[in-house]
Design goal:
The chain contains seven helices and no strands. The protein has helices at 6-31, 38-48, 54-74, 78-96, 109-124, 131-134, 142-170. The chain starts with 5 loop residues before the first helix and ends in a 5-residue tail after the last helix. With 175 residues, it is an all-alpha fold.
Length: 175
Amino acid sequence: MACLDRRDLGLLVLRVGTGAVLAAHGTQKLAGWFGGGGIEGTTAAMEAMGFHPPKHSAVAAGLGEAGGGVLLALGLATPAAGAAAAGAMAGAVAVHAPAGCFAQGGGYEYPAFLGFTAAAIGLTGPGRYSVDQVTRHAFNQPWMVALAFAGSAVAAAAVVGRRARGRVAVDPDTT
C-alpha cells in the first residue's frame, strides 16, 4: 500500500480550502447565499463601482469566483479554474486598491491573496488527489495553462481598464 504523498495532500487541502472560499464568495453574488446580494444586488453594486455593463460584470464575477472555486476544489480543469478565479480577483483588487493594501482599511489584501493562491494552484496543478488525475488530465494540459492565463489576463485587463476609463470620464475631480 502506497503512502500518502504530503505534497499531493497539501495541494488537496489548499485546493479545497481556497475553492470553498471562492465558491461561497461567488454564490453570494449569483444567488444571494451567505448574506450576499444576489444577482440584483451585485448588479447594483457593480454599477456603483463603475463596471459596465453592470449585469454582465456581476454574472462574470460570480461565475469566475463560484465556478472557479468549485472547479479548484474538485481539481477539475485546474488551469482554467485558477485563471478564472485569479481574473475575477483582479477586478476586486482594482476596486479595493484606492484603500491601500490592508483589509482592515478596506484594502486589496484579501482578494489579492485569493487571486494569487488560485493562480498558483492553476499553475502548479491539482496534485494526485483530484478529478483531473482521475480523468488522466484531459482538462489539465500544458497548453491549457498558457491559454487560460493569457485569456484571463486579457479579459481582466480589458474589464479593469474599461472601468478605470469610465471612472476618469465621470470623476469631477479629474476635470
